[in-house]
Amino acid sequence: MERLSCFWRGVLNEVEKLWELQQLLTQLTDREKQMSVKPESFAAIDREYEGVNAEMTRLNDSLETMAKERRRVEGELSDQQEILKKYQGQLMQVKNQQQYAAAWKEIDATRKHVKDLEESALKTMTDIEGVQKQLDDKRSGHDELKGRYDAAHDEWQHSLGDLRAEAEQLKKKAGEV
C-alpha cells in the first residue's frame, strides 16, 4: 500500500510539473506573439508615417518628371525660335510672290508651334508650382509626424525589451521544470 501511495504521489508530482510547464509555455508563446506584432498605437502612426513618406516620394518623382518635360519643351522652344528667326531673315531674300507665300506659310506654322510650346511651358510651370506647394505642405507637417513616429517607435522598442526579458525568464523557468 505504501508503494502504491508513493507511486501516486510521484505521478501527481509529474502531472503538476507538466501543468506548470504548460502554463509557462503558454505564457512564453503569448510573449513571443506580442513581440512579433506591432501594437495598434504604433501601427496607426506607422501607417500614417509610411503614407506621408510614400506621398512625398510620389510628389518628388512627379516634380522630376515635370522638370524634365519643362527642360525638353524649353529646348524645343529655343530651337523653334531660332528657326523662326531664320525664316524671317529669308523673307527678305525672296524673289517672287510664290516664294514669299511659302516663306509666310513656314513662318506662320513655326509661330503656331512656338505659341503651343510656350503654352505647354507655362502649364508645366503652373503644375510644378502646384506640386511643389503640396510637397512643401507635406514637409511642414513631416517633422511633427516624425517626432510622434520616433516617440511611438521608441516606446514600442522599450516594451519589446521588457517582453524579451520576460520571455527569457519564462524560457529559463521552463528549462528548470
Description:
The structure is a single chain. By secondary structure, the protein is mainly α. The chain has one domain: Helix Hairpins (Orthogonal Bundle), CATH 1.10.287.1490. The chain has three helices and no strands. The chain has helices at residues 2-36, 40-91, 97-176. Helix 1 packs antiparallel against helix 3 (97-176) and helix 2 (40-91) packs antiparallel against helix 3 (97-176). It is rod-shaped. The chain starts with a helix and ends with a helix. The model has no long low-confidence stretch (mean pLDDT 85).
Task: Flag low-confidence runs.
Answer: none
Biggest beta sheet attributes: none
Number of E-state strands: 0
Please give the domain count: 1
Principal-axis shape: rod-shaped
Helix content: over 70%
CATH architecture: Orthogonal Bundle
| End-to-end Cα distance | 29 Å
Structural Rg: 38 Å
CATH fold node name: Helix Hairpins
H/E order of the elements? HHH
Beta-strand content bin: under 5%
Number of helices: 3
Q: What value does the average pLDDT take? A: 85
For the record, the CATH class is: Mainly Alpha
Estimated structural class: mainly alpha
